[in-house]
Amino acid sequence: MDAMDLDRLPLRERKKLRTRQALVDTALELFTERGFEGVTLDALCDAVEVSKRTFFRTFTSKEDVAMAPTQDLWEAFLEELEVCEPAPGQTLFDVLRDALLAALGRMPAEGWAHRVVLSRRLAGRTPSMDAHGLAFCDRTSRAALAVVRRRFALPGGDELRARLAIDVLVAAFHRAVEAWVEGPAPTRGRLAAGLGLACGAVPESLTLAVR
Q: What CA–CA distance (Å, rounded) separates 24 from 65?
């Protein structure tokens, strides 16, 4: 959420969101400096000057706060999927891609990309974060399928291909992020471009011939 949108919220909501952001930023900074296991939850809460009770009102674990930037994107994706209006004849995969790109456009222009880079690098060397990410991905995929099932008519009730379309979108996103994190000057716009390229490569990847 950008600063202008934040200012429109009631004071109580603004304070909650600012505390949440402080927890995310401080967690990523401390985990990067000291290692994920080198920072206790007590130390994190002390650094932000909040109680554990406040922490657990917002996050479920250290892994949850460390992976918040990417999780925020996928939660916005589910919201976009709920309200999107597909064009006549548009494929489900294209609908999913457009919803994810719309969600990406909602992420803060300042700071979000940097947080994602820190989070992804931490996950690469922290098994518990990797496991948390897999569980979140499965929950999100199931939630997306539930939205698709409720909102769109699937020919013959074909949930298998619908779930595969969601899985392929997730795979394309991971490949795009992988290249983006290692590339020069990661920005929200560069990630959107990389996601577009990865999604565009999907049809040919399925017909790629081997010798």
A: 6
Assigned token pair, 48: 């932000």
Q: Do 9 and 21 form a contact (C-beta atoms < 8 A)? A: no
Residue 168's nearest CA partner among 103, 94, 105 is: 94
90 by DSSP, 3-state: which?
Answer: coil
| pTM over 0.85, yes/no | yes
Q: Are 147 and 163 in contact (CB under 8 A)?
A: no
Q: Which residue in 69, 54, 63, 61 sits closest to 21, CA to CA? A: 69
- Contact criterion met (CB below 8 Å) for 137 and 174: no
Contact 145, 160 (CB under 8 A): no
The residues spanned by each domain of the chain are: 1-60, 67-211
User: What's the Cα-to-Cα distance from 155 to each of 96, 152, 162, 181, rounded to whole Å?
Assistant: 17, 10, 10, 38
Do residues 68 and 123 touch, judged by C-beta distance below 8 A?
no
Q: Which two tokens stand for residue 76?
A: 């916005």
The fourth-level CATH superfamily of domain 1-60 is Homeodomain-like (1.10.10.60)
Q: Cα(117)–Cα(168) distance, rounded to whole angstroms? A: 22
pLDDT digits (tens, 9 = 90+) for 159-192: 899 999 999 999 999 999 999 999 888 999 999 9
For residue 31, the Cα-to-chain-centroid distance in whole angstroms is 19
Q: DSSP assignment of 126-180, as one string? A: -HHHHHHHHHHHHHHHHHHHHHHHHHSPPGGG-HHHHHHHHHHHHHHHHHHHHHH
